[in-house]
Amino acid sequence: AAAKSSTAAEPSANAAETPAAGQPRYYADGTLSAKLPYPQELRLQGIYASQASYFNLGTRWSVQQSVLHLDIRASRKASLSSLTVEINGKPVHSAALSGYGETGKRLDVAVPADAWRSGSNEIRLWLGNKEFGEIGFCVDERDKDNWLTVQKSSWLEIGYRTELPSLELSQFPYPFLKDAGDTSGTGTSIVLPDQPDEAETAAALQAAASLGSYAPDGLVGLHMDKHAAIVAGDHRNDHLIYVGRLSEMPEEIRSAAPQEAVSRIGEGPVLFRTVSPYNPNRILMVIASGDDSSVLDTAARLLQNKDMTSQLSDSSALIPAGTDINLASGRLTGDTWTLEQLGYDNGLEVRGPLRQQTTFDIKLPSNKLVVPGAKAKFQLRYARNLNFGQSLATLYVNGIPAGSKKLDASKADGDVWEVNIPSRAAKLSYLEFSVAFDLQMNDLSCAPTGEQTPWAYVDPSSSVSLPAKDERSMLLDYYPWPFIKNGKWNDAAFALPSDPDGDDYSLLAGAASYLGRSLTDNSASLKVLSEGKWNPTRDKGVNVIAAGTPASLPALKALNGSLWFRYDSSFSYFISNEKRRLLPEFAKQLVSLQLIPSPADPETAVLAVTAPDERNLALAGKFLAQDKNASGLIGNAVLINRWGEATNHAFSGDDSYSLSEKVNLSTGQARLFTILFGTVLLLLIAGIVFYLRKYRRR
Hints:
- This protein has 14 helices and 38 strands.
- By secondary structure, the chain is an alpha+beta fold.
- The strands form eight sheets. Strands 1, 2, 3, 5, 8, 10 and 11 form a seven-stranded antiparallel sheet that branches.
């Protein structure tokens, strides 16, 4: 049933027209406002269609007002239709589409504050044609000329007040990372002592990874620097995380430390939260140790264990030596997952006639490659008032059809559907599953809406089986492999340039936070290699991310002969090769990301993030720390120009991965090719033998 039509809302008069995505701003009364971009473009087609999108609101938000801005394009025939907006299953607005056309127009919909809930919210749009909508809908009508699209430029504007942070450690990662809106890490800085050792820097990067484990899109705005530089600049007004030994701690921070915990600091690292001494409206969290800085890693890794972190109900905590802070072994393992294990405790449901879709996804470790034998097994229930001769269920995996099933009246209360997943649909570590139901009504005439609305349900016991093997190719396609393997640090290390500054630290902190997104096992540590302590032609058993110029990180000079894009003899620009012709002046301004086998150990890798000009290194930051850019890396060498535009390149060589690793003969397509090639070869040999025998007789 459609909601009654209401007047579209006017955008707030005391707010900016279109704020940057996710960035908060303030109304005159102090209420925060955030712009949440629409997750994808929608297309509704037919006389009766619906589609849902999902928005995540902060768990600490108190919504005051909201406006949904929909940029709509509609066909001429859709002028006879109406659009209904539902929030979490309840209609909030209906609008006639007579004033909309193919050129597009914006619809602003005021949404009551109480329509929202913390966490995930469903916005469902319904398209209904008036010719049928007043009396019902017809089973055989799928009018392709009746369509509407909602452009990706649409957004949700939320005015909200937020809960003030407390001093409880259990609130981590709040306020250092917001749970909705701007989740880029902007406004948070990790602080090092002015003379940090390798263990302190490694623990700080581990803390960045801990923050990143809560951030689905990476932390491109996260800052990291030494204490003196932080307090001398604008970042003193950030929320701060200080990592270091008690003896190196500035007095204004040390004086805030709880004395009881400090008196026992020889027993293990200490965590505490307090008001920042540099801004009373900001929070300072400290990860401190005694003289043994190596124990800082334990406290930083504990923050990756969400269950243990939630148990830290006080403002300070001592982590005694020997404490098991590792994630419980009950986490998802194996190659089969149920919807319930994936977080869909209530299963998946669709309602309404004709085509209705529901989706879920699975993200595998980046080093895994799905092998033949993948399948899904769905436990279904559906309405009995369907035309079972025409009603179907279809599974799409990453947009590729995997299989269909006719719905059966005799199995409406409990149906089992098994479908094989084609290899070509499971090439990536991210798999999106879309289950589409074509729910045709049981009467060729128009059937009334209401209680007889058809529905289908996927039970949470439904499962997906994805047998997989390790993918060994050293390609950026699989990043963060090889630095993360099976959700765990894989002998990973960060090489520091000489005398690193805030730009250097922040580049590596952003990379660590992005890698932290893939951590599901917090039992491994990472290393930091100071300049001069890493010899890439000698050191084995370590996967290194090295960021710097040949001048600031001389080890890169030793790597030059192994780079896909090498430096000239003066290390002032990249030189041309068989893949790319480069002009010297242009090549001076480039930044490169090059994944190469380690010269000392071809089983490990080096990711060289390097540029002739140190001022351009920051351009690589968004490709190391932001999902929308990092996920687009392909091949083993990327060149980034001074405008931040990246070009991917793929090289192969004797010191690269083997042919057997580049061609996976276990895939269905490769096996088919092998069979066809073998058949042709046998026929060719048989033909030659027949020809020779024939002419021998003569």
